[in-house]
């Protein structure tokens, strides 16, 4: 969800730009997650034939259609954080 949020906020981004926004994620885990999101058709990966190669990631239309739901879930989590996190019953 965080990668989708970052792409929604930042638009088309390179791998290093996404990695900079994420705290405590390994390069391997980010790469694996991006591949999975691409397989799920939530993001696109565009490779430009340059030296060195430039690769950019962006949300697909399907990914964009998911964002209102992610943002709603995030808003709910923030609103109810104390109720959920403080509950020990």
TrEMBL record:
Q: Note the superkingdom of the native organism.
A: Bacteria
Q: What InterPro entries does the record tag this protein with? A: HTH_HxlR, WH-like_DNA-bd_sf, WH_DNA-bd_sf
* Residues in HTH hxlR-type domain copies: 1-85
Q: Which UniProt keywords apply?
A: DNA-binding, Transcription, Transcription regulation
Give the Gene Ontology MF terms in alphabetical order. Answer: DNA binding
Q: Where is the signal peptide?
A: none
PANTHER family in alphabetical order: TRANSCRIPTIONAL REGULATOR, MARR FAMILY (PTHR33204), TRANSCRIPTIONAL REGULATORY PROTEIN (PTHR33204:SF39)
**What protein is this chain from?**
Transcriptional regulator, HxlR family
Q: Which organism is it from?
A: Bacteroides graminisolvens DSM 19988 = JCM 15093
């Amino acid at each position: 969800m965080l990668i989708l949020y970052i792409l929604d906020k930042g638009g088309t981004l390179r791998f290093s730009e996404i990695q900079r926004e994420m705290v405590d994620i390994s390069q391997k885990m980010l790469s694996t997650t991006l591949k999975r999101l691409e397989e799920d058709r939530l993001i696109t990966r565009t490779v430009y034939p340059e030296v060195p190669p430039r690769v950019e990631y962006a949300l697909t239309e399907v990914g964009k259609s998911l964002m209102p739901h992610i943002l709603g879930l995030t808003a709910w989590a923030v609103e109810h954080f104390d109720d959920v996190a403080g509950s020990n019953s």
